[in-house]
Amino acid sequence: MTSSSGAVVTRFAPSPTGFLHIGGARTALFNWLFARHHGGKVLLRIEDTDRKRSTTEAIDAILDGLDWLGLDFDGEPTYQFQRAARHAEVANQLLESGHAYKCFATPEELEAMRAEQRANKQPMRYDGRWRDRDPSEAPDGAPFVIRLKTPQDGETVIDDAVQGRVTVQNAEIDDYVLLRADGTPTYMLAVVVDDHDMGVTHVIRGDDHLNNAFRQLPIYRAMGWEEPVYAHIPLIHGNDGAKMSKRHGALGADTYRDEYGILPEALFNYLLRLGWGHGDREEFTKEEAIAAFDLDGVGKSPSRFDLKKLENLNGHYIRAADDARLAMLVAPRMQGKVDIALLEKAMPQLKLRAKNLDELADGAAFLFKSRPLSIDEKAAKLLDDNGRAYLTRVSQALHGENDWTIEALEATSKSLAEQLDVGFGKLAQPMRAALTGTTTSPGIFDVLVLLGRDEALARIDDQIDPAVATSGADNT
């Protein structure tokens, strides 16, 4: 499983206890981009050792989120739980070489130790009581854990590719458990063994794992393994600077897709720029991101997640997106039967102002409404006696129009406004209300063309007739 010498190998290692949250998605992206930039490999490891909380549904959600973002991995995923025997093997090698030892301290003894440390306001750490004792001092058959014999003197220095030089006194690192009494490995051991066996050269992860690096390095050194380059990325905060929470948008990638109507290329680009910079440039294609990305562009300070900025960026990508693709994405968000061809035809106008797929769906809803239209409250105010009087004149003019094109309809309608000596808005407002049931829509001549001559005229005439108009009013 080890990589060839010199090749960059990164890994993304989520715990499948939930969805692919936004911070994890960015970590995956940075690992993917760094490996692709350097022509290396990016591997996927599912850290499913927490058997109570790890679920197949969570694994599927993570894989689905990564696939949606367009992140492909080299080789099949590695499942950490399946490698427990290998982890135990390394723990026993460390035991045999004198870099680890058996600890027979009972749970009651350890709790008494912690209680005394709390009372004395001391750091909570194992006191090494079995570090230099002979296992023969323990009762026959007594359960034990295997602990790593960490260095007690001096300091450990990590030249982190993002954080710079970080130093920790070795006395601060206690002899932690490698193998539990039931023979199962701890996270700290499993991560190091897997990273080594998978040939990982660069460990790129959140800076909440920085302390773990100082606990994991002694295993590398005790085993005589090559150490990886560490790159600890600052965490994402909310737009108010507070720790990221659901209120700030600490949600799954699937939520941004399904509930917020965000396109994958928009989230890809937004996450790319969340803590990484390349001059003043904001927008990157996937290929451009691969070419530009490197760790020296990652900042040391936490980045702030701003949903409004994401939606604005999403609007840019919506306007650039293929109309047929948008129609297929929007159709499932609409109620009732939808004509995909008509929806696609409407996209050039619908997408001019939309910031997400739901806004596209709302904007397209008028196309598929049944007559008589339900009129919302704002639109109903435009269909008073004056509004209906204007609609009567509009209907007369448009019934005489056989060239149902934007240019012809615009010329006819504006000519009517001149005859009536009013601004065109006086006609357009009741027209929009009658044609869509709302006060917002694409350009009024686009609406007329998209609806077609018969449907458009019928909707206008419905609102001229007070009886029909009343039956279609939305009184909710």
From TrEMBL:
Residue span, Aminoacyl-tRNA synthetase class I anticodon-binding domain: 326-463
Subunit and partners: Monomer.
Name of this protein: Glutamate--tRNA ligase
Cited function: Catalyzes the attachment of glutamate to tRNA(Glu) in a two-step reaction: glutamate is first activated by ATP to form Glu-AMP and then transferred to the acceptor end of tRNA(Glu).
Any Pfam family the entry gives: tRNA-synt_1c
UniProt motif ('HIGH' region) ranges: 14-24
Region (Disordered) location: 117-142
Protein family according to the UniProt entry: Belongs to the class-I aminoacyl-tRNA synthetase family. Glutamate--tRNA ligase type 1 subfamily.
Swiss-Prot/TrEMBL keywords: Aminoacyl-tRNA synthetase, ATP-binding, Cytoplasm, Ligase, Nucleotide-binding, Protein biosynthesis
GO biological process terms on file: glutamyl-tRNA aminoacylation
EC number: 6.1.1.17
Entry keyword annotation includes Transmembrane helix: no
Domain Glutamyl/glutaminyl-tRNA synthetase class Ib catalytic: 8-311
Residues at which ATP binds: K246
GO cellular component: cytosol
Motif 'KMSKS' region, residue range(s) on this chain: 243-247
Coiled-coil annotated residue ranges, if any: none
Annotated catalysed reactions: tRNA(Glu) + L-glutamate + ATP = L-glutamyl-tRNA(Glu) + AMP + diphosphate
GO molecular function: ATP binding; glutamate-tRNA ligase activity; tRNA binding; zinc ion binding
Places the protein is found: Cytoplasm
HAMAP family reported in the protein's UniProt record: Glu_tRNA_synth_type1
InterPro entries: aa-tRNA-synth_I_cd-bd, aa-tRNA-synth_I_codon-bd_sub2, aa-tRNA-synth_I_CS, aa_tRNA-synth_I_cd-bd_sf, Glu-tRNA-ligase_bac/mito, Glu/Gln-tRNA-synth, Glu/Gln-tRNA-synth_Ib_cat-dom, GluQ/Sye
Biased composition, class Basic and acidic residues, residue ranges: 117-136
